[in-house]
Design brief:
Number of domains: 2
Distance between the termini: 29 Å
Largest sheet: 8 strands, parallel
Number of helices: 6
Shape: globular
Order of helices and strands: EHEHHEEEEEEEEEEHEHH
CATH class of the largest domain: Alpha Beta
Strand content: 15-25%
CATH topology of the largest domain: Rossmann fold
Structural class: alpha/beta
Length: about 300
């Protein structure tokens, strides 16, 4: 059994799986952004169980956000990173106990998972289309979008936000279409698309004849004028963020999917009808809510 003592703090993390690597994903950015907002109100730290190191994590932050050097340093100094090699996964959730006052999990839990956290309360954003409401974790509070997930006794309506005001603004716009073809749920065969028309962001194998950008991309919104949204393997995208960022920076979005996804459709509705509700700011509901949970 491994023991990790985070201290009398709020720990922000995303759940890792024994035989799966998230890579750099939306949950990586959610951890950064909610840390940035909540650290001013509650002692807050980040816990990452990932396949990259702190230097790479710094590059992820600096390539995406318009933070000062001091702000980036503060994020890094308050991050505990457990290196999880690929493909060998040696850090198992059920062989670990993590001690913290309060925990925020940005991607929820999955069927059959137990909690490795020893804390007063676990707050999670669900990111799975089944089972999260059925988990037998007595100190779990679910902050969920009730339009997507069925309500339960331990759920509260909440729409996940994005720190749009701090994302780097583009200084140019190249006339090409961008696709994400990363490992995990967005792994696709890009050969269905004409090589001369697209630029592909990937951390996976590259196909000859196509142009690629390696993750992390510095100021990615300089690199394209249209984003092509491609299928996810589960056909459920809990709270897509890149289409929100595209709206913010006036980038065209085209959808190449042949299924209905309630998570995606709910996000598209908010983009068109209530865009301001997607901004993560100092007056967000979660600030007072987490303060109350921390002090309880």
């Amino acid at each position: 059994m491994k023991f990790i003592k985070m201290g009398n703090v709020l720990t922000i993390t995303y759940i890792w799986l024994e035989h799966y690597d998230h890579g750099v994903c939306g949950h990586t950015y959610e951890v950064i952004e909610y840390f940035y907002i909540l650290r001013k109100h509650i002692p807050t730290k980040i816990l990452l169980v990932v396949s990259f190191d702190l230097d790479y994590f710094r590059r992820i932050i600096e390539s995406k956000y318009d933070f000062s050097k001091e702000e980036v340093d503060e994020i890094i100094e308050n991050t505990t990173l457990i290196y999880k090699p690929i493909p060998v996964i040696s850090f198992k959730p059920l062989e670990t106990q993590i001690f913290s006052n309060l925990v925020l999990v940005t991607n929820g839990f999955y069927e059959g998972q137990q909690s490795p956290f020893v804390c007063k309360k676990i707050v999670c954003f669900p990111c799975y289309n089944k089972y999260v409401n059925l988990l037998n974790i007595p100190n779990l509070i679910i902050l969920q979008d009730d339009r997507i997930y069925p309500k339960s006794a331990n759920s509260i309506h909440y729409v996940k936000k994005i720190l749009l005001d701090k994302i780097k603004k583009p200084t140019m716009s190249k006339n090409r279409t961008l696709i994400y073809a990363t490992t995990g749920p967005r792994a696709i065969d890009i050969r269905k698309y004409p090589s001369e028309e697209i630029i592909c962001v990937t951390d996976d194998k590259k196909i000859e004849g196509y142009k690629y950008l390696d993750i992390p991309v510095d100021n990615v919104f300089n690199e394209f004028n249209k984003y092509l949204y491609t299928p996810v393997s589960s056909k459920f995208d809990c709270s897509p963020r890149f289409i929100v960022e595209c709206k913010y920076f006036n980038k065209e979005v085209e959808y190449d999917i042949d299924y209905n996804d309630i998570g995606l459709e709910t996000r598209k509705y908010d983009i068109e009808n209530n865009f301001e509700s997607l901004f993560l700011r100092e007056d967000d509901f979660i600030v007072k809510f987490m303060e109350k949970m921390f002090e309880a």
